[in-house]
Task: inverse folding
């Protein structure tokens, strides 16, 4: 495994991270434990989750799976923004967003579910148009001061929003964000022109989710949809099914040919393509089988060549 600094911070994360979005919300403790052990033993030290995954239950599963490992040996990240708990019979207007109240109460609940005293990285799961940015920045900085998180970051924020947050923190002397978590893969590249320049300018690292486009960039959907795949799942497959356009499928077929010529798994090609960017600190992958994790970690050892990038650019552009 290779490791990179998370932006200009001192925090070091594995180039491949392990995430729990959609893959662990069934609450299977035995499977989660096996997957996390495989990831940990493969050199992965960065584990990402969120309070909304599995309506809160995924954090409990992740905490249980990581319990055997010494706390100082892994980097644990979670997020807050979305409502996820049923309000009835106690409806609340403060069950979402990035207000001081919501961020503080949600991190306390996350720490309880995860079974830890602190998280390494607490992330704003989306931008909140209804809360002053100054309030959000102050709340996150205060959570760092209280030792409940060591660093803070954001997810899917625009370049303008990121720069504004950094400016507010620097002017006020608050702890500034160190990371952004955007979607980034060969089929989702819009952040290259928006947030990537801002994160580079501000010294913020990107921990990218969906680097394999939810499995589409593994090549398994080039032919018929395999039985039992995420695409067949009514809820989990709704984002993936939207990717099944003629243009995307043609790109995947041509990319699969490049991977075949190189004699590497298509997942290796897709992950190494993401990691070619210096703005990227880690690529967060999911898995339903240990073998998928082992295969994904091999991407860090593949030697990137400019000629490969030229071929890929001809397909993607």
Result:
């Amino acid at each position: 495994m290779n490791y990179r600094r998370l932006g200009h911070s001192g925090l070091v994360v594995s180039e491949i991270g392990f995430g729990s979005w959609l893959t662990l919300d069934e609450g299977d403790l035995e499977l989660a434990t096996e997957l996390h052990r495989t990831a940990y033993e493969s050199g992965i030290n960065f584990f990402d989750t969120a309070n909304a995954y599995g309506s809160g239950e995924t954090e409990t599963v992740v905490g249980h799976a990581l319990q055997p490992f010494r706390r100082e040996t892994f980097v644990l990240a979670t997020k807050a923004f979305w409502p996820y708990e049923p309000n009835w019979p106690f409806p609340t207007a403060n069950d979402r967003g990035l207000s001081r109240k919501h961020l503080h109460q949600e991190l306390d609940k996350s720490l309880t579910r995860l079974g830890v005293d602190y998280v390494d990285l607490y992330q704003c799961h989306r931008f909140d148009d209804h809360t002053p940015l100054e309030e959000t920045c102050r709340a996150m900085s205060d959570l760092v001061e209280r030792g409940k998180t060591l660093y803070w970051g954001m997810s899917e924020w625009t370049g303008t929003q990121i720069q504004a947050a950094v400016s507010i923190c620097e002017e006020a002397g608050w702890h500034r964000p160190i990371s952004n978590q955007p979607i980034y893969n060969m089929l989702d590249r819009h952040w290259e022109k928006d947030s990537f320049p801002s994160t580079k300018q501000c010294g913020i690292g990107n921990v990218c989710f969906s680097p394999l486009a939810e499995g589409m960039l593994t090549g398994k959907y080039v032919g018929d949809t395999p039985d039992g795949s995420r695409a067949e799942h009514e809820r989990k497959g709704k984002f993936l099914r939207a990717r099944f356009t003629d243009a995307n499928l043609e790109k995947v077929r041509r990319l699969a040919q490049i991977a075949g010529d190189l004699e590497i798994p298509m997942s290796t090609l897709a992950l190494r393509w993401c990691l070619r960017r210096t703005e990227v600190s880690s690529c967060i992958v999911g898995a339903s089988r240990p073998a998928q994790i082992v295969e994904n970690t091999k991407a860090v050892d593949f030697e990137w060549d400019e000629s490969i990038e030229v071929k890929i650019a001809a397909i993607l552009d």
About this structure: The longest strand covers residues 149-155.
